[in-house]
Specification:
SH3 type barrels, sporulation, 1 helix, five-stranded antiparallel β-sheet, globular, 59 residues
Amino acid sequence: MDVNRIKQILSSSSDIDVNYNGVSVWIDSLHEDGKTATVHLRGPLEEKSVVEITELEEV
């Protein structure tokens, strides 16, 4: 996924499905480096991770 699309998703009020390694995640924030983002798993755990944005995939 690219930086512009992540910014669009973050500013959208719609529920947009995004996967990281085949798992559904929420994007919490885009980091200033423009290469990484903080995400958390959808569901009760909400464990946060920093991931490369190129590994995120819109479903």
